[in-house]
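Late entry, adenosine-5'-diphosphate complex.
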Amino acid sequence: MEIKLIQGDITGQDVDAVVNAANSSLLGGGGVDGAIHRRGGPEILQECRALRASRYGRGLPTGQAVATTAGRLPARWVIHTVGPVHSASEDRSEQLASCYRESLRVADELGAETVAFPAISTGVYGWPMDDGARVALSTVRGTPTSVAEVRFVLFDAAAYAAFERALGEAPPG
Ligand code: ADP
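Prediction complete; structure with ligand written out below:
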């Protein structure tokens, strides 16, 4: 699998699937979630509502992932996953790793070959960027998948630099 780091806006990525750092309600929020729904249009929210009605009445659990259409985005699908809120007293990195693994599993089910990820949980959910980058890269590298290309799309220079450092540290997968 090829791993690419890009600084920019994930909503413009020309990939098969874009991963959304959603919240458990699946009804939209700020950050990446807000950007995806704004640019992707109402079709995505409609499908999210249907998923809530049929399967996730109590919300999508943290660490799980589910796909919808990508509406007007250049991508074909959006894979919604719910990251953990960072905690100073409890290690939730297994839940964060699960977001990346489960998103790749859903991508495999869809037959997606190129997938773009944001830095899950590192915004409103407060995860320190360096650690979030290490979890992201080590998990993606350690997950068996038929996805051929994973792009990490980092919103700003600091996030990009953190992922570059983590890529340098991680053993080649
Ligand atoms: P979470 O609630 O999981 O923390 P956020 O959306 O608040 O999710 O933030 C996750 C990361 O995505 C942050 O590093 C934030 O800077 C970044 N981000 C926000 N908007 C975009 C975007 N349009 N494209 C890529 N990354 C984004």
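The domain at 2-168 is CATH 3.40.220.10 (Leucine Aminopeptidase, subunit E; domain 1). Will revisit in the morning.
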